[in-house]
């Protein structure tokens, strides 16, 4: 019996075409909430970019796994946090400057870019948040502030250039022009496990929805992993079930197939 479900946001709960949660998904999740099934957001976004998603719903999510599992919390407070080592950041930042590679540094309540280029602008256009673009700031902040996640604006073929500078990190990709970077011992599965401990729920009582490369580990980890119809083929290949596109009532369709509605 499924007691908890984890939802990625961009391309899963929120359509990348409309930048909205389909009405069918809103109603479906409200019905699950009323049945007592626990519902969580599990995203690469930082906490500051999660609130407006919550505001679209008519109920409160039971918890939030943000920055790909690096910072997890519920209404009672912090559940788990993990951040990138200062040593790795000190290795990386001179290389970014030398090669003029754009990067977003994510702290808990503040994110900033080392500079802005076309790849960053393209990302914000894709997720419909050009008016909320993070500012440019001094990367020397790494000496005094925890950095939970990096968004480095390189294509997959360029990743190898970064890995020598980030030996204690892992790379998670859901967008062609950038990669999420987090601690090697982190990830959405770690955040899920910590959240399940807090709620005393078994892993086999869970399901998750996702569409991007940063969702693969999550979908493999939970009891039932559901890939959206618009998901990357690598994501579909590891899923227990492939539903319809986010824009084609994919969440509602899957929940019905799972006899949850």
From TrEMBL:
Keywords: Hydrolase. PROSITE patterns: COF_2. It comes from the Bacteria. One of its GO terms (cellular component) is cytosol. One of its GO terms (molecular function) is magnesium ion binding. InterPro entries: Cof, HAD-like_sf, HAD-SF_hydro_IIB, HAD_sf. Gene3D superfamilies: 3.30.1240.10, HAD superfamily/HAD-like (3.40.50.1000). NCBIfam families: Cof-subfamily, HAD-SF-IIB. This is HAD-superfamily hydrolase, subfamily IIB. It comes from Flexilinea flocculi.
